[in-house]
Amino acid sequence: MTSTDTTHSDTAPFLSLEAVRKTYPGVIALDRFSMEVKSGEVIGLVGENGAGKSTLMKILGGVTRPDSGTITVDGAAHDGLTVEQSIGSGIAFVHQELNLFENLDVAANIFFGREPLRAGPLRLVDRARLREMVAPLLKRVGANFSADAPVASLSLAQQQMVEIAKALSIKARLVILDEPTSSLPIAETEKLLDVIKGLKAEGISVIFISHRLHEIERVADRVVVLRDGTLAGTLAKDRINHDEMVRLMIGRMLKEREKAGEATRAPGSVALSAEAIRTSTYPDRPVSLELRRAEILGLAGLVGSGRTELARVLFGIDERLAGSVTLDSKPLHVGSAADAVANGIFLVPEDRKLTGILLDLSIAQNITLPNLPAHARRSLVSTGAELTTAEKQKKNLGIKAPSVLTRTGTLSGGNQQKVVLAKWLAMNPKVMILDEPTRGIDIGAKAEIYGLMRALADAGVAVLMISSDMEEVIGVSDRIAVMHEGQISGILDKDDFSQENVLLLAVGKKPRSLQAAGGVE
Amino acid sequence: MSKKDLGLLILILVVGAVVTAINPRFLSAINLANTSNLVALFGILSIGQAFVIITGGIELSVGSLIALLGTLFIDFIAVRELDWPLAFVVIIALGAAIGFVHGWLITRLKLQPFVVTLCGLLIYRGVARFYTADGTAGFAFGQNFPTLEFLTAGRSYGLPNSFIALIVIAIVMWVVLHRSVFGRYLYAIGKNEEAAKYSGIRTGRVIIAAYVICGVLTALSAIYFAMYTRSISPASHGQFYELYAIAAAVLGGFSLRGGEGSLVGVILGTVLLQELQNLVNLLGIPSSLNFAVMGGVILIGVLVDQQWGVFRARRRMFEAARQNVAGAPAE
Description:
CATH topology of chain B: ABC transporter involved in vitamin B12 uptake, BtuC
Number of helices of chain B: 13
Oligomer: heterodimer
Number of helices of chain A: 20
Structural class of chain A: alpha/beta
Low-confidence stretches of chain B: 327-331
CATH architecture of the largest domain in chain A: 3-Layer(aba) Sandwich
Helix content of chain A: 25-40%
CATH topology of the largest domain in chain A: Rossmann fold
Strand content of chain A: 15-25%
Radius of gyration of chain B: 21 Å
Mean pLDDT of chain B: 91
Structural class of chain B: mainly alpha
Number of domains of chain B: 1
Largest sheet of chain B: 2 strands, antiparallel
Largest sheet of chain A: 6 strands, mixed
């Protein structure tokens, strides 16, 4: 089936979009967008958040209809696809959030709802036949797990392979991978990239969406860049490189970041010191870390290296199994987040919507929540005091909203993050911990948040920034601590900043240049 | 008063008008006094339930507690001849202690509110029946407590004193729920406990306090019920009262997921429930249909409210969209 397709792939692409336009009330999500995907071609699709990637995916999946334009799939032209047409023509999705039943095994997941049945009135599942059907699919994705392994026992990358096998089981001819590597460790990412190459070899087309540009560089035959809903450019194989992609994505060269991130004063004395702390995730690994005043310490490392857990322990959300913490050289007991807040240790958590803010409360109510007694007389809330604080913070941080009484849930991601920051800035932070502070935030708001972090450090606050974005860690931090499997594997000073050094430490190796100098703890 | 509460008030008035038209005795002084007494008794325990529901919890042991604490109260003053003010304080303290234990089990030992209070429902009923050896607790012939009887079953200016007590409690609790720091914490926890914790709120303490408030108000209403019925058979006294309280809160706009509802709402919910009871009696509907009528009305009420919510959400979306067209396009 696939071999015949590849032979005439040059003449007829599997999928082509012609001048597709989609508007939502007030927003042009996609405009005059055209692209084509040949059989067996790997397309890298990149663009900032809000550039129109999700709209494009929805159109291809048949979830939304474009306002105008033509979609040609396998020679048949459509004004828009339905979900049935999309599946029927062999377009399969592997989403960032996996849609698997963790309590079922691999085979049951792959053929869920399409299980082979035994004859007879009971319509029992034919397990033997099911296994026969699953085996070749697992082989094609290079799976190193068996068909009856429970999905809950698989790693994230293995679960993604199950999703891909599911896509193959419906005879997919185009597999769309939506940020599949964003939460994968490096070794697992390698496996996934191999699977993509395998799909290509079988003549199956792939659209690979990723923010990790070096992965795109490695597998893509062509890169399509979206910006503000339009096609910013297409890069042929020989022109795919990091700088070129970034230039097309943001429409200019990236420089502001470095400017916003320069320290204006020397780091001060140690504000918070953690001695041999143990977290419940890595109970056998002690972590020691010092946060200095007027400094932004970047905390890098792979997902799952224990950074968030460390932050949660410092903020009192999780229990500290062992070790001690001192604040201003005095022993500090943090048994709950309330204790941390009372001592001026604040956390901007990773998951903004679940833990950072209360979406149903107004901006003002969110901002004053941690410090409500200060806005109350005889424990009755004073609305006047509350509004004064909120208005002041709204102005200081440039929160874009009709009023401070606006529901926080209606704000954009960047403005929501500013509300999280505002509630802490309204109090007097001594130590500010930010866990992935710019995740899912557009580039303008990002720069503002970097500016705020720098302003905090300049005001003498000790800032700890956890980030998985390499450019961010290097561009913003004054020092970088790197974690590997629950421990600090090294601390880099500004002169030693490089992607290579951070990555080596993140995978538990020592950077060569530092071994001689002895810069690693 | 929110639009939701206003809608409920209108419904109460419309039902009242219809019942009056069919049976004018609805507005007679004696009927109004009786009904307002019942509204007071159920209102007090419904307010307690509301404080728990707003945190996203539930308190199922209310009915059994009414039986247990009522039995104890009558036993204390009628049999053991304790001074009634002392007995009153002991019962209230017991209610608070039980509420504290529930809250502690839920927050510290991470048990589900439904499970903890379901066990309470079974345990307290059993203890109450055991305590009286399945007999009836009551007063001996000629036993009198004039002051206590005046405060619980008496009237001032034509109003039952219990109803006056409800008004006082409602005003105080309104301030606590809608104006105090503690009230704000309750709503925040009900909306998103995790985020509240990340804002430095000691969520455990706040939730325990909600169960203590519920225990105290339940104990208070247990005394009122005891003085109202004057004899308690612990096997059936107070049965299903937790459901009346939950129903009143749900009718009054509380979400069982927490974080939503107003004090005026739960009072209006109680009024509507008692009005329906009264309607069944006055209109000569077989009293066996009592629960069916109540269930039907609650179902319709919740259905209308839910559909109204969907409608409003949609309208809000369109408005937001229109604002986007007018202003700069958002992210």
